[in-house]
Specification:
InterPro entries: DUF4364. 56% of the residues lie in helices and 23% in strands. It is of the alpha+beta class. The strands form two sheets. The protein has a three-stranded antiparallel beta sheet, sandwiched between helices. A three-stranded antiparallel beta sheet has the order 4-5-6. It is elongated, with a radius of gyration of 19 Å. The termini are far apart.
Amino acid sequence: MSEESLTLYKLMILFMLDNLDFPLTNSQLSEFFVNHGYTSYFHLQQAINELVESEFVRAETIRNTTNYHLISSGKEALAMFHTQISEPIKNDILDYFAEKKYQLRKEVDITADYYPLKKKRGEYMVKTQIKEKGSLLLELNINVVSKEQAIAICDSWEKKSDAVYGKLMEMLLLDE
C-alpha cells in the first residue's frame, strides 16, 4: 500500500468522524471501507492505528467494541488537508450516513459491560447505558451472581434496551 493511499484512508476516517456527533466503532468503519471497496480490513486497521498513535483520534473500548472519537488535533489536520479527499468520496460517505445514521447511532448509544466485584467473590456488576446524542438517558447497574449472567445481560441489552426503558418509564410515570 502506498503512503498516499494510507494518507487518504486516514483523511476519510477523520472526515467520517467529523460529520457525525457520535463516535464510530471499528466494525462500522470496516463496513464502510470494505463494502465500498476502498481498502482491505488490514490496511484500514493500519490507518486507524496510526491515527490513534498520532493522537488525532481517541479510542475507547467498551466490552468487545472500540469506539473512535475525533479530537481537536484530528480536526485541525482535516481542516488543513480535506481538499485531498475527492468530492465523489465525500459524497459516498455522506450518502452512507444518510442511509445508516440511525442504525450507526443506535449501535454506539446502547452499551453494556461487566466487571467482577472485588469484595464479593464470584459476583459481577453489569453496567448498561442508553444515550441519545451524547446525553445519558438511562444507566442501569445490576449485581449478578455469575459471569454467565453478566454476559447474558450484556448480550441481550442491545435488543431489549428500548423495551426496558419504555417499561421503566411506564411504571414510574403512570398512576395505577
